[in-house]
Amino acid sequence: MSETTGTTPGSPSGASYAAAGVDIEAGDRAVELMKEWVKKTRRPEVLGGLGGFAGLFDASALKKYERPLLASATDGVGTKVDIARQLGVYDTIGHDLVAMVMDDIVVCGAEPLFMTDYICVGKVHPERVAAIVKGIAEGCVLAGCALVGGETAEHPGLLGPDDFDVAGAGTGAVEADRLLGPDRIREGDAVVAMASSGLHSNGYSLVRHVLLERAGLALDARVEEFGRTLGEELLEPTKIYSLDCLALTRTTEVHAFSHVTGGGLAANLARVIPEELHARVDRGTWTPAPVFDLVGRTGDVEQLELEKTLNMGVGMIAIVPEGSVDAALATLGDRGVDAWVAGEITGRQDHATGATLEGSYAR
After folding, report:
1. Domain span(s) for CATH 3.30.1330.10 in the chain
2. Quick one: which of 17, 150, 180, 260 could link to 311 by a disulfide (CB 3.0–4.6 Å)?
3. Tens of pLDDT, residues 13-51
4. Which residues are in the PurM-like C-terminal domain (predicted)?
């Protein structure tokens, strides 16, 4: 949901904003095109509509909490935007943006409330900007949050006419005594993995370098292992787990979540493990999707380097007591989330890090 900003062009004989490359009318057209999508994200707490200087959210909704804690996060989608640019597909990248922001927020058990976006372009193409916002709005619906504001900035001279980038910020809320994290984790807890939808939105600098630059693969080339083109695989939207995670907290006991993003599974899991404990993950409990093997094999990338860069097929982790495993898997299964027990929490012993991957991937 984005507003463009600018000034009134000068006289025909003088300098003008339009002559400098900023098209205010195109920006206004983009706003009109995106309105219907933004409306789909509306929650009862949202006040006002598109066009204000700030998005308004009725904080009296927090009265239902005894001690509400606000959770906030901001992120982008990295160089995955270049794949979208090359393919001319703009209505999926917004899903990635919402996932990167709101799935960070839900890790502490917070309910996503609202989000704002920032879209930076070299030249405003109204339909293109509207398509990006359409994807963001659809993502917000999947995360259960409202899209309350945003900005579209036109940067001629700094970005090419077809170049763009996206970023977003979000806010959620959680009851203080239901805050999830390291303090709740106990030895014997189970590590429940939730399958990723693919590469998600991390590691694309490596992926692009290996597949497009070094190997020279074409985005429109069909890859038999994928059953579709390389470009379609690389643009597969990041799965949004927010409502799935919240459903888990309502149906069973959860001690912590970990969103697997940049740094890979072990590094992100270690972020929520207390110093005295260790998370042991068994690679043999799942088979990474073919795209991970393609990147590794094509670029001769060592396994540990792949695991430090890509999610390897796991997008979110839930740490639950052993007695909650069946209920957790049942809830996720009912919601269509592929999930399994991938490991356990043990004593720290001689481990130097908070989480390790052991064994070999299933084939």
Report:
1. 22-50+65-178
2. 260
3. 565 455 555 555 655 655 665 666 556 667 777 777 666
4. 186-351
User: Residue 129: CA atoms inside 13 Å, Cβ hemisphere, count?
Assistant: 30
What CATH code is assigned to 22-50+65-178?
3.30.1330.10
Q: Please, which pLDDT band fits residue 264 given cuts at 50, 70 and 90?
A: very high
Q: What's the CA gap between 236 and 179, in Å, rounded?
A: 32
